[in-house]
Amino acid sequence: MTTKSSLGSPPLGAPARIPALPGLGTTWYERGARYWLRRASGAVLWFAVLAFACYIALVLYQSFRGDLPSGVRMVWDWAQVAASCVALVWGSVVQRRGHRRDLLDPPTPSEARGRKRDQTRRSTGPALAGRILFLIAAPVLPALLSYAVGWVLAAFTIREYPGEVGARRVVEGGPGGSHGWQAE
């Protein structure tokens, strides 16, 4: 692992300016302990949020389930188990395919920041609308959250994010490295 010299210049062999990526900062370049700590803390945060959402989903599902006749309840529970298993795999497959597609044309650091900004703007409306749908979807909520768990699990078990690949190409001047990011 290279370090900065006493004069504050970048390490030998490193570019003059390493672009910061959303959620990773500049740790992606050397992939040291700080990089893995950031990735692990992001995964832990997501899984804590998903665990809370799953708990709420199961409480809501139990309230719906209590109103079903006992004969239907057993069939409905087994249908939920089957649907949840399928949704878990489906969420993982969707995430992996999206990741593979993004690796074919990885974003430059400026594109990655723009995508993250756009994603944050777009998520406000669905989050507010989702509060009402969350209650309406109580009968199938375990399956919906299984999809989310599969998606997040696949998202955090990849080797390298597409933004890292794009930034590395830009920094190293590889294919596709001439567009997007410019040293400031």
Account of the 3D structure:
With 184 residues, the chain is mainly alpha-helical. It has 5 helices and no strands. It has helices at residues 33-65, 70-104, 109-136, 141-156, 162-172. Residues 1-9 and 176-184 have low confidence and may be disordered.
What's the helix and strand layout?
Elements: H1 33-65, H2 70-104, H3 109-136, H4 141-156, H5 162-172
Helix pairs in contact: 1-4, 2-4
Summarize the structure in short:
The protein is mainly alpha-helical and 184 residues long. The protein contains five helices and no strands.
The shape, in one word, is elongated
Query: End-to-end span in angstroms?
Result: 25 Å
Summarize model confidence as the mean pLDDT.
77
**Discrete helix count:** 5
Low-confidence stretches: 1-9, 176-184
Number of strands: 0
Proportion in β-strands: under 5%
Task: Name the features.
single chain, 184 residues, disordered C terminus
